[in-house]
Amino acid sequence: MNSLTHLTAHATKRVAQRGIAPNDLELIKRIGTEVEGGYLVRQKDFQVLDRELRHLRDQAKRLVGKRVVVDGDTIVTAYHANAGKERWLLRRAERRALVS
Asked: How far is the C-alpha of 78 from the C-alpha of 75, rounded, in Å?
């Protein structure tokens, strides 16, 4: 997807007047419906995004505490880390960050 980075002087003025932030323009292009000469975000487009975000949130919640062990680009194993293992892993990560 091409970025909407080039704005005319007119567009810059109108976007500012209408309270549309620069990152809003990218979101409009990403979630909106393509119409003649541009994009339109319909209520239906928002509802689709909302469903996808809820699904992603639920999926992420289900993954809390899961650990994937990797070696390079290979997955070695995966498991649910208990609270003690989680603390141990996080302490080691903090120590490595301090040394680096």
From this structure: 8
Look up the pTM and report it.
0.71
Asked whether the beta carbons of 39 and 28 are under 8 A apart, the reply is: yes
| Residues paired with residue 3 on neighbouring β-strands, in sequence order | none
How is residue 67 written in tokens?
Answer: 């650990």
8 Å CB contact between 48 and 56: no
Between CA 86 and CA 76 the distance in angstroms is: 18
**18-42 tens-digit pLDDT:** 999 989 999 999 999 999 999 999 9
> Residues 76, 69: contact at Cβ < 8 Å?
yes
